[in-house]
Amino acid sequence: MISAKELKNPHVVRRDLLASLVVFLVALPMCVGVAVASGVPAELGLVTGIVGGLVVGFLPGSRLQVSGPTAGLTVLVYEAITEFGLSTLGPIVLAAGLLQVVLGLARFGRWFRAISVSVVQGMLGGIGLIIVLGQVYAMADTEQPGSGLATLAGLPGLAVEIVTNHEALTAFGLGAGTVAVLMLWPKLPATVRLVPAPLVAVVLATAVASLAGLRPAVADVNGLLQAIDPPGGADFARLADVAVIGTVLAIALVASAESLFSAAAVDRMQDGPRTHYDKELVAQGVGNTVCGALGALPMAAVIVRSATNVQAGATTALSRIAHGLWLLLLAALLPAAVGIIPLAALAGILVHAGCKLVPAKEFGPLWREHRGEAVLLAVTAIAIVVTNLFEGVLLGLLLAVVKSAWETSHVHLTTRRLTGGRVVVTLTGNATFLRLPRILEQLEMLPQDQPIELDLTGLRHLDHACRVALENWARRHNNAEIEPVTIRR
């Protein structure tokens, strides 16, 4: 929210408007690129960016986060459109937005911070790998195979196509040049880096294509109003499909997690007011509800744009609101400017963004210090590539719960022999079904011809499975002529 006092300060207004122009120049190619990669008209990416600025920008939560279409949702959207059709995208996004609003009002925002960081990194890494693998084909103006495994298997054929086909080689050269500019730009002097790298990369690729007389594939732009297609009643009926519901849950989960983790990162970058996570979740939900009503792409807060906003000097929400206004003016007044950008250049931007999602630098230290967390990260990422985003994340969350349960269910068994031949077995710690094989293995090694007392008073936790197993063991362990095992609770 913007206070009247802040709007009356010309220094704040001037600084935030300048920051909004920088954010706009970063957001423009990303909005178009994500839309094209998702299989929807380029204008729908701009619509989502506009809503992220002019709707979410006014809502409380985080003052400096910038929302819009994100590479992290590209895979989900592409799969949803392929399976259910473009007309179903609106209801899916709208339902996901309403779910986010409900979760925010129910104060679930803070609980997203409890999701294992390794699962989130694995999720982003898997998404990044899929984006990179898929957009490499787009860089060569070649159709991408369907699944992640098919995409991997098709890479040798893609390499042959690039080498032997002049048009594919030309397009790939533009895309590779775009990636090179994005990689080299941070190494240049600070005065040069005032111009956003994505804008420079796109302008250079477009200029090279034009001056060299190349004819690469470009985005098909027809105007903002023509692209907006609000869903009808028949489209909403698809929400009864179990597969569609799964996609709604996946989009809500990924968009919420990405937004709230981005909020945490933005809070660490600035000294202003902290993010209110529940309100931010509601704001993201409202934005996705509006996007769904317009038939546009889903949104999330994006760390690249948000970090750019902070680094450009923004201190209020005016910057993110104004960036949405600039996107609206461009889409309304100069739509043809978007239609001259080579798709290979946009694919190059997404390849670079996908590579940044893969936590390659963090994996080595994580493996050395917390090997279990590194395995969790890798399994989640690989599962997403091999199956799909929803199933991969579910597997990661399940493994995180199992890992946590295993690490917390430490149980210690001690044996004391008393005078008279009685054996006292004491269990301490947390006895869960995960430790049952080890517990029973040790108990079954005890003698069967001596009185035994099982002392459970030192246990902090004893689950039902363990209790039943221990009672069964006590009944059948001792020989018939020896008194049964006694249990002290």
UniProtKB/TrEMBL annotation:
Domain SLC26A/SulP transporter: start-end pairs: 14-380
Locations listed in the record: Membrane
Membrane spanning stretches: 17-37, 44-64, 84-106, 118-140, 197-218, 239-261, 281-304, 325-354, 374-402
Signal peptide positions on this chain: none
Bilayer topology term: Multi-pass membrane protein
Pfam family membership, one: Sulfate_transp
Domain of life: Bacteria
Assigned keywords, A-Z: Membrane, Transmembrane, Transmembrane helix
PANTHER family hit by this protein: SULFATE TRANSPORTER
Protein name: SulP family inorganic anion transporter
Originating organism: Streptomyces anulatus
